[in-house]
Each structure stands twice: as C-alpha cells, then as structure tokens.
Amino acid sequence: SGLGKIVSDNAATIDEKLGPKYGDYARNAARTMQETAAKIESKDLGELGEDAKQFVQKSPGLAIGIAAVAGFMLARLFKGSND
User: What's this model's pTM, rounded to 2 decimal places?
Assistant: First the structure.
C-alpha cells in the first residue's frame, strides 16, 4: 500500500511532465495497488498460500514468468549492494 501511496502522491507531477492521460494511469494503478494491498492484509497466511496454489494451477506459465522476473530483480538488487 505504501507504493500505491507514493504513486498517487506523484500523479500530479506525472500530469505536468507527461500529460493528464498518464497521470490518470498512475492514479488508477495506485488505486489498484492500494485495493490489492488491503485484500492481502485482510487474509491470513493459509488463505494466501491457497490463493497462490490456485493461481499456479490456473496459470502455470504466467507463474513461472513472474517467478523469473522476481528472481532477476532480487539478483540485481543483491548484486548492486555488493558493488
């Protein structure tokens, strides 16, 4: 939800630099992030695990892609801290 707030707070700057169309995209993305964060925070660990399991069963290719991107980002994050 913190990331959603940051995006929302910067939507006016995006309006100025890129135009109102992109500011609206940022506001919609921020709203979606905050709503998703609220849903996640309302669930317990067991429910989250079950949701993840169902997602992987429904979309295994997408789950592998997300895992690969997340792994790449984490590797870059930790590699960057060693420089």
Answer: 0.53
